[in-house]
Design a protein that fits this description.
The protein is of the alpha+beta class. The chain has helices at 53-62, 64-79, 87-94; strands spanning 3-4, 11-12, 14-17, 30-32, 39-42, 48-50, 99-102. It contains three helices and seven strands; from the N terminus they run E-E-E-E-E-E-H-H-H-E. The chain binds zinc ion. Zinc ion is lined by residues 5, 7-8, 10, 33, 35-36, 38.
């Protein structure tokens, strides 16, 4: 399941679950690159593809709460001086319930 960000080549080996259930990424789930902040989506083969402007707009129109959370994480990563965003910042943005799991 490990793969590289198509935007910056960062190795993505962890994902966040903002659901309560323990689920692996599924088609249509979103991913924010810890390296560059690019927002991607999982395709049917669970490869990540950066979102197009149209897809971002669609997400905003369908679920503006999720859109804002993803956008905030993306900005936080891009403004961060470290390569990867830290767990405390993620909890601040997504709430204490957020779980960070390694992709196997
Ligand atoms: Zn990236």
């Amino acid at each position: 399941m490990k793969q590289h960000c198509k935007n910056c080549d960062y190795l993505l080996d962890a994902h966040l679950s903002v659901d309560e259930e323990d689920v692996q990424p599924q088609e249509g789930d979103y991913s924010v690159c810890f390296g560059c902040g690019a927002i991607s989506t999982f395709d049917k083969d669970l490869n990540i593809e950066p979102l197009t402007a149209e897809q971002l707009l669609e997400l905003y129109q369908n679920d503006d709460d999720l859109f804002l959370k993803l956008k905030n994480v993306s900005i936080e990563i891009r403004e961060s001086k470290t390569v990867a965003i830290d767990d405390d910042t993620l909890k601040k943005l997504f709430g204490e319930d957020v779980e960070i799991r390694k992709i196997e």
